[in-house]
Amino acid sequence: MKYLFEQExxxxxxxxxxxxxxxxxxNTRRYHGLLVAALNPPTDRRVVVAKIEExxxxxxxxxxxxxxxxxxxxxxxxSKYLNNFDNLPFPTWQYAMDNWKLKKNIFMAxxxxxxxxxxxxxxxxxxxxxxxxxxxxxxxxxxxHENQFTDFYTEISPTQLKTYSHYGSKPVFTRWxxxxxxxxxxxxxxxxxxxxxxxxxxxxxxxxxIGYVKYELKPNEQLTLVFSLEEDVxxxxxxxxxxxxxxxxxxxxxxxxxxxxxxLLRSGNQFLVKRNSTDSMxxxxxxxxFGDWGxxxxxxxxxxxxxxxxxxxxxxxxxxxxxxxxxxxxxxxFPDQSQDYIDYNTIDATLWLFIASYEYVLKFNDLPxxxxxxxxxxxxxxxxxxxxxxxxxxxxxxxLFGGQESEQLTWMDAIVAGKVITPxxxxxxxxxxxxxxxxxxxxxFCNDLKIEFGAEYADIxxxxxxxxxxxxxxxxxxxxxxxxxxxxxxxxxxxxxxxCLSLPFSxxxxxxQIKIFEAVREKLYTPYGLRTLDKEDTNYHGKYxxxxxxxxxxxxxxxxxxxxxxxxxxxxxxxxxxxxxxxKKVVRELALLKDHFYNQQGIQCISEVFDGDxxxxxxxxxxxxxSVAALIRLYTDYELFNVG
Length: 644
Hints:
Radius of gyration: 26 Å
């Protein structure tokens, strides 16, 4: 049964909201819930409905289908009745004993903070089904506890509840298709969340029961519960709503794509969300706890929307960030709460905007979009040249320099108690690869639009081209990770230099590219992604585990990141050819990650990270946008779905 606690399911609503839990029926994280609603999409997420306690009553005996972890005991242990779980096209459980069978499925109404839970008698004998919804009222980063503030005042009618967790709160509506509701108020106390315990957080929570719905379910008969924050949804016909959402999930454009690739596409769509503040689209960086981050969005959209040909969403996402520029930078991340400030502490996210814009134009040939934003792109370059936040500026060598104490601006961004774990102040190698590409992309756009590139930009390109190879190349023939020109040279072997080979414009000779790639393969490659540091380095951490301090110390000091696999294999094909033999080799090497996608941690998800030593179990968040995007782009660009 332990693996059922480890496996997690997830459904999303396109607003940043979701429903998720462990396959066994328990909540094992503070982020788990049956309705986690985005009050200001895709942010202000709150756990509104925690779960449902489910019971089958037949022949004078109750059979509890739900599962909870308490101190030292699992009670009830409904997983003993679980015969099967499937995640396609939506999470579906099948429970049974000799004399009864029950099928349950869960899905969310798209673009609505609404979840539907359906129960069908799949056997030949009638039985009573008793359903006890458990309510919550907490920010999704917190755990909920009994308190005097939340009284769950409820207006009860024959087919629905209208519940205010506290005075002035937004009501949650609960409706059932059939059955009788009985009020029976009670706190469910001291439920434990094992995942939170493992990570050193508060791991005990409470939920609140208002009452229960009971109904005698005859063979082939169905009972559906709907939970929503929207009154117009809850008052619609439940069976029609159920049929509509079920049909949408079973059909749609992706239905034609079978197998692993099709499932990756479905999985990737879960990250696409509407941003209320900009009335446009964005990308959630990862479930359960990430919002929409600039860097992650720019990297992820290359696989999730551009490579797959979704022009409208790609254009909308780019527009979201073009509208949010400040002092020459796009946001590092939008805030979790609408009243908080946007964070701009990033040196690379803005440069990734150039890459995403360039690939958008290559895919869709949309020069009018470039023309509309060309002055913005010019302004971004000018801000970097003249100097902007965090000491970001151009050196006399043409390199991009940035950084200051207690700030981490690159993707290796772990900070513990104000201390940066991987300080990279100076000229990081991947940032400078991105900087050069930004200049070259702007030059291409200028040529396409028949406007002047500008002598200042040309001069910086010339200086960069003159100095990069001779100043970044280390004695081994690979690249330094960070330099301060003529002062310091960081020779830690990390995957960042791979971007000097994978981005559209490269300065390096093929012989050096091969040397770098082979060193990356030897020192950093695993079947689940690339290590962030050579195992021989004294700062290497092989396990991503423990409390937050311990995890953050390992985050970029050896931990494996799957998202780097696109760049790795893209360079492999570039250097050695995209032959059928090489494609088959890549598909074979991805077999373990494919198994992870289907069977481990998040079902049909790809985790954020893995251990550097003996990577097997997914770590970090269970579903990371750029992890999934890397495989989607790899399969799309090189048509790996056609490889037997």
